[in-house]
Amino acid sequence: MESVLEKIAEKEEAIIEEFALFDDWMDKYEHIIGLGKELPLIEDGLKTDDLLIRGCQSRVWLHAKMENGIVTFTADSDAIITKGIISLLVRVLSGQTPAEIIETDLNFIQHIGLKEHLSPTRSNGLVSMVKQMKLYALAFRTQQNG
Amino acid sequence: MSELLTDIDAIRAQFPILKREINGKPLVYFDNGATSQKPQSVIDTISRYYEFENSNIHRGVHTLSQEATSAYEDVRKKVQKFINAEHSHEIIFTSGTTGGINLVASSFGEKLVRKGDEILITAMEHHSNIVPWQMLCERNGAHLKVLPISKEGEIDIEEFKNLIGPKTELISLVHVSNSLGTINPIKEMIEIAHKQSIPVLIDGAQATHHMPVDVQDLDADFYVFSAHKMYGPTGVGVLYGKEELLNDMTPYQGGGDMIKSVTFEKTTYNELPYKFEAGTPNISGGIALGAAIDFINSIGFDFIEKHEAELCRFATSQLRDIKGLRFIGTAKERAGSVSFLLDGIHPYDTGVILDKLGIAVRTGHHCTQPVMNFFEIPGTVRASFAVYNTKQEVVKLVEGIDRVKRMF
């Protein structure tokens, strides 16, 4: 268990290092915007209301599948900054087992100074998205155990 | 009357929060449509109340209660004068605009709206002037009819006339739209409604700080507004209602203060305005609303209207030059705000970057989702103005938008 959890920790560490390069907010946000633009879009067919997480401000679509015990997330948002942060969450949580996803508390968001975006008052759908990612993981684990 | 205050620096100096820096930049506060900032006099009134006068009103024989009661009741008279109501007992203190509309939807609606009746609103209403009526319609089997708006964000008077029918029981209209800035021709609309003896409620949440309101001149049957959008505290609002209508309505909530006598068999209700004011009210807030009205009067609406119109004009002319910027809401008669979208940039993204620059705007649907659906947009960026805003701040907003555009 410990060794797999490290995988998430390593990914988080890499992101923290990546963000340590920026000393002002502008560079940091430009980087997030860049990430948002790069994020592979969720297939249009998957941008259905079923997969929509309605934030008050921006909308988020999240899709999850599990193959050979590994979960893959794809996601999208109509706002670029939201999408950039989604890409970080997807980078950390995709390719992990359901158990790892359930366990992690995603501390890196705070370390890179983006915690405000995961505040419920931002209403951008990200809080619900993280919750939804964990719920998918729980469902997949139940599937595995069943 | 003492000399009116018309120096913007002196006005700004009264608002301690305007000295704050946000993300290392001087605060530019353009979210006044959501709530305005409070002058020192309002803040002081609240603390002075708790330091010197705090006690429960209306029932106490002791000095503190007498003082607090008369301070609170003086504000009722002040509000009466502020909106030129005929009687001070037509001024009902509420928790805010939403509270006022819910009161009318419940007390007027339950008694006078029946199955098959219609309530008419416009397509530019705030959720607060939609949902209470929807809930009433669900309870009573009435229908909610909606007057559409044009792409400029205006209603059509002829269409309004056509939508009024024999089953229309009540019309509820926004005075100034919070998401579009449109000033509706409410006086004319009220006159049309009254020809068929239909009462009209006006949602004045976005009006009372921008322009003088005279409920008798408008002949409004109900007029509701919030203290916190007019430099006063949150949690206090006013429902003005014509005496005759208010007398006809059943109480909204039961409890203390609203009764004349209570036995287990029968309760008789108190007179206006107390019939609608169950429970201990927001006493400090009510008294501070008085200080907010004093603040507005110390400047005067002549200056407020002129200054804010100038800001709106300046903002519109500056923003118009920005390539890819589209205004949402271009009605001829507008007040208090400009709403816009940047081509290809989500309002959330715009709001986040502007915040980093110390500029507070509102982004999103502004609690008017039907308006956003009509324009087929996810939301807008809204800059809304108060008397303390300056052209220099508008310039900062324009520079901020330039920055946003370069980043996306």
Give a short summary of the structure:
The complex is a heterodimer of chains A (about 150) and B (about 400). Chain A is α+β, with helices and mostly antiparallel strands. Chain A has one domain (about 1-145): Sufe protein. Chain: A (Alpha-Beta Complex).
Structural features, described:
The complex is a heterodimer of chains A (146) and B (408). Chain A is 53% helix and 14% strand. Chain A is α+β, with helices and mostly antiparallel strands and 146 residues long. Chain A has a single domain, classed as Sufe protein. Chain: A (Alpha-Beta Complex). A three-stranded antiparallel sheet of chain A has the order 1-2-3. In chain A, strand 2 and strand 3 form a beta hairpin. Chain A is globular. The two termini of chain A are 20 Å apart. The relative contact order of chain A is 0.18. The model of chain A has no long low-confidence stretch (mean pLDDT 87). By secondary structure, chain B is of the alpha/beta class. Chain B has two domains: 131 residues, Aspartate Aminotransferase, domain 1 (Alpha-Beta Complex); 254 residues, 3-Layer(aba) Sandwich (Aspartate Aminotransferase, domain 2). Chain B is 40% helix and 16% strand. Chain B has 14 helices and 17 strands. A seven-stranded mixed sheet of chain B has the order 4-10-9-8-7-5-6, sandwiched between helices. A four-stranded antiparallel sheet of chain B has the order 13-14-17-16, with helices on one face. Chain B has a two-stranded antiparallel sheet with strand order 1-2. In chain B, helix 4 runs parallel beside helix 5 and helix 12 crosses helix 14. The chains are: A alpha+beta (146), B alpha/beta (408). Chains A and B meet through helix 2 and helix 3 of A and helix 12 of B.
Domain module tally of chain B: 2
Radius of gyration based on Cα positions of chain A: 15 Å
- Annotated CATH topology of the largest domain in chain B: Aspartate Aminotransferase, domain 2
What is the helix content of chain A?
Answer: 40-55%
User: Termini separation of chain A (Å)?
Assistant: 20 Å
The biggest beta sheet of chain B is recorded as: 7 strands, mixed
Structural class label of chain B: alpha/beta
Based on CA inertia axes, which overall geometry of chain A fits?
Answer: globular
Question: Could you give the count of β-strands of chain A?
Answer: 3
In total, how many domains does the architecture of chain A comprise? Answer: 1
Strand line-up across the major sheet of chain B? 4-10-9-8-7-5-6
What assembly state would you assign to the polypeptide chains in this entry? heterodimer
Question: Strands across the major sheet of chain A, in which order?
Answer: 1-2-3
Low-confidence stretches of chain A: none
Q: What structural class should be given to the helix and strand makeup of chain A?
A: alpha+beta
Distance between the termini of chain B: 53 Å
Tell me the total number of β-strands of chain B: 17
The proportion of residues forming helix of chain B, as a percent range, comes to 40-55%
List SSEs of chain A in N-to-C order: HHEEEHHHH
CATH superfamily of the largest domain in chain B: Type I PLP-dependent aspartate aminotransferase-like (Major domain)
